[in-house]
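Q: How would the structure tokens look for this protein?
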Amino acid sequence: MTKIYPVSSKSFFVHRSNYAIQQLDHFCFNEAYIAQICAVSGMFEIVFDNVTILPANSCNRDIREMRANELVLKISEPKIEALVEEGYKVYDANGNLKQKNEDITIAPEAYADKFKELEGCEVYSIEQENGNYVISIDTEDHTFLLRVSGSGDTQEWDRFLNK
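A: Here is the predicted structure in token form.
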């Protein structure tokens, strides 16, 4: 059992007023920020800020794009498949390859520290297909891919904000 992040003022164990099941495709996480990541045996949750709630979301009564902070994404029966720092290439001004850095797979025992480092980073995308979730995270100078498998997802948040 690996404890990733302690419960704090943005508690994961708080009842939130809006609740959606299996509606990940009714949110846009592009330009959202990671506030916290919590992964313990049998639970995986990420708190996001600046998430766009799309008009098709069943909770969206305004039927227009709205925004939410402190949105909690919960993945049921989770298994972290991989956390990868994506490789990259460095070129000189003439387009000549100077350096090539391969992908780095983060070891499970380092997840806690890496998840803490990813707080405040921007999400590029979240994709879900057949119980596999791929979260692309942009840091200041690198990109990380977090792959989690699970049996389903829920999203919880308190307020709708104007976009």
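The longest strand covers residues 33-40.

The chain is about 5% helix and 50% strand.

Upvote if useful.
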